[in-house]
Known about the structure:
Low-confidence stretches: none
Radius of gyration: 27 Å
Strand order of the largest sheet: 2-6-5
Distance between the termini: 79 Å
Shape: elongated
Order of helices and strands: HEHHEHHEEEEHEHHEHEEHEEHHHHHH
Structural class: alpha+beta
Number of domains: 3
Strand content: 5-15%
Helix content: 40-55%
Number of strands: 12
CATH superfamily of the largest domain: Winged helix-like DNA-binding domain superfamily/Winged helix DNA-binding domain
Amino acid sequence: xxxxxxxxxxxxxxxxxxxxxxxxxxxxxxxxxxxxxxxxxxxxxxxxxxxxxxxxxxxxxxxxxxxxxxxxxxxxxxxxxxxxxxxxxxxxxxxxxxxxxxxxxxxxxxxxxxxxxxxxxxxxxxxxxxxxxxxxxxxxxxxxxxxxxxxxxxxxxxxxxxxxxxxxxxxxxxxxxxxxxxxxxxxxxxxxxxxxxxxxxxxxxxxxxxxxxxxxxxxxxxxxxxxxxxxxxxxxxxxxxxxxxxxxxxxxxxxxxxxxxxxxxxxxxxxxxxxxxxxxxxxxxxxxxxxxxxxxxxxxxxxxxxxxxxxxxxxxxxxxxxxxxxxxxxxxxxxxxxxxxxxxxxxxxxxxxxxxxxxxxxxxxxxxxxxxxxxxxxxxxxxxxxxxxxxxxxxxxxxxxxxxxxxxxxxxxxxxxxxxxxxxxxxxxxxxxxx
Length: 435
């Protein structure tokens, strides 16, 4: 390899390991709108900040390294310069709001200086003075609440909300677990904290939470946001997380759909960190191989290669769109069945694992255990949900004991009530015991 190639690969390795230090306040309370690429680009810029820097420090980097980090691919020098220029301008144009401790709101800008050299591809940037309390002197001030993940932990993520959720969860790492609200519109509403905040064109100076409408359907929110984020965080970062949907609010009131979500947060063990390092190195090695190939000279693709690559890419996108449409239709059908059912909570609990008639049989068998006057009629479904969940959870935890089918085992447990669950006092009883 030439000296230039070695220098490029070493520079990339160093950039990967830089820390992205941000104040917890900005992560938790900042209301901004960035695409996935802009989020990665901003993290790259923030990773340039070193201890001892101040708001007047200028940062220099090259377009090629910048693009390789946020896109993980080799691009022509012309495209690299053009793409960098466009990305930095977009970030600079997007101000954001944050609520201060005294209750006031501040409109904050990301960048103050952007200079590009079209000849060398070198870039000089300087952060706006508004950013000082959120990016500088975070480890020396009175309030030492900040996050400092490595750049490589988010630069490999491919889902829009994964970096945002990772940074947010990381601010609660010392708690080991944290519960957010869902769909309440409060400052602790998880969806409000991770969504895009856009300017209201009708009301100047106002911004609003641009929450996708289908997030109201929890299975879709889980499929499109939670599950991909959990997978990428557990794969690429130094944390392992697990989310638990909760159908009960903080006052103890039960709901059909999740109204809270709890995250369990742990640091990975030394062995797990080594495995994560291997994954990171393997994925970045693809780009490093591309750097070596670039040194050998361009490969002229044949017409057949171009057509084949184009065909498979179009076919992949088509299949992804078709699958997404099928999933959306399936979720709509599921929700329709749940909404029309006499036992929506029990139906939603078992819809994905049992047939509808099997679910109805289990509900009717469970309802036989309700004593006259024990539960209000409109609370029967909620009572049966808790009753069925008690045995369903146990069956899921002991799959080795299932000798027939899930349905038969669950139905038998519901009929015989082996744990005498029906006699226990629940929140759905008309009269509660004072004992």
